[in-house]
From TrEMBL:
A GO BP entry: RNA metabolic process
Binding locations of Mg(2+): 150
Protein name: Translin
Molecular function GO labels: endonuclease activity; hydrolase activity; metal ion binding; RNA binding; sequence-specific DNA binding; single-stranded DNA binding
Organism of provenance: Odontophorus gujanensis (marbled wood quail)
Length: 229
């Protein structure tokens, strides 16, 4: 094969690769739009009236996840099944955002941490990498860390809305989350840096709980703990 023929073949491979990336980009843009719509919807829980509308907002968010699953099915067809990590960077950020949104919905519904397997099911992908397009462990953990930051904000806004028991429950949850992350030997630089931010979320929530304590509002919150969440 001549040199020119070799480079013509290489150009063909480059063009095919660029076409794949462009197709992926289009689907990822649609996923990002859906994620933005869900985030805008769920941000409403931070407002005073939003606390009464949490079940309704979670239900609407669940409806958006049906769109996500359809978009994920489309994304799976845009690249060879065995080249997941070759193109992973294209959807990594939006996937982490979607993990956070799924985790936030589940927390608002049950005040528990969603499992990686449950998130994968919500998104319509696999938890096991051997089965194809899957939820990478580090993407799951990144989404969970974003949840911690969101809950720190929710703790502050709960007090503003007069809900004094929620910050106490959030504090318990975040401390359990922090204990769980301490069990991990994180070597991924990006994930490690994000985990370092968790201590600030813990501190922020502790300050909220302390403020409730010195104002005597924690007793009021404990006294009403038997009511609805």
């Amino acid at each position: 094969m001549s040199v020119s023929a070799m480079f013509v073949a290489l150009q063909g491979a480059l063009t095919a690769d660029q076409d794949i990336r462009e197709e992926i980009r289009k689907v990822v843009q649609a996923l990002e739009q859906t994620a933005r719509e869900m985030l805008t919807l769920l941000q409403g829980v931070h407002q005073g009236p939003g606390f009464q509308d949490i079940p309704k907002k979670c239900q609407k968010a669940r409806e958006h996840f049906s769109t996500v699953r359809t978009q994920m099915e489309s994304l799976k067809t845009k690249f060879p099944a065995d080249q997941y990590y070759r193109f992973h960077e294209h959807w990594r950020f939006v996937l982490q955002r979607l993990v956070f949104l799924a985790a936030f919905v589940v927390y608002l519904e049950t005040e528990t941490l969603v499992t990686r397997e449950a998130v994968a099911e919500i998104l319509g992908i696999e938890a096991d990498r051997e089965r194809g397009f899957h939820l990478d462990i580090e993407d799951y953990l990144s989404g969970v860390l974003t949840l911690a930051s969101e809950l720190a904000r929710l703790a502050v806004n709960s007090v503003t809305a007069g809900d004094y028991s929620r910050p106490l429950r959030i504090s318990t949850f975040i401390n359990e989350l922090d204990s769980g992350f301490r069990l991990l030997n994180l070597k991924n630089d990006s994930l490690r840096k994000r985990y370092d931010g968790l201590k600030y979320d813990v501190k922020k929530i502790e300050e909220v709980v302390y403020d409730l304590s010195i104002r005597g509002l924690n007793k009021e919150a404990t006294g009403g703990a038997g009511g609805e969440k």
